[in-house]
Amino acid sequence: xxxxxxxxxxxxxxQAERDILALLCSGxxxxxxxxxxxxxxxxxxGFQFDECECFLIAVTKGPDCxxxxxxxGPFSSATVLQNEKALGHLDLWVIHGYLHSVDYMPFEDDxxxxxxxxxxxxxxxxxx
Length: 128
Description:
Elements: H1 15-24, H2 30-39, E1 42-47, E2 55-59, E3 74-82, E4 85-95, E5 98-106, E6 121-127
Antiparallel strand pairs: 1-2, 2-5, 3-4, 3-6, 4-5
C-alpha cells in the first residue's frame, strides 16, 4: 500500500520523477530522442493502481510533440539498486505513441515502494 500523497493531476513531475524519466529516455536511438522531447510536455497524471505508486504521465500533445513508434511492452527499463543489490526493475510504458506510465516491479526482498529517494541508484537496462 502506498503512503497517502496529496497531489492533483496535471501538477509538475517531481525532480525525482523527472530524473527517473530522463534515465528511462536516455537511449541513443531516434525513438528515445522523441521520448526525451515529450518529457518537456509531461505532467503527473495520478496513480495507475490504488495499491501501488506506479504513476501515470500526461503529455500535452501539440505540433512540437512527435509520436514515439513502439510496438508494445515496456519502452525501456532500469534496474533499481540499493547498496549494489538489485531490488527490481522500473519500466517506462508508451501507449499510442506517447509516454504513459512508470511502474516498479520489485524482486522478492523489496517492499515495493516506488524508489524515488536518494538511497536508491539506477542502472539503465535499455530500450525494449
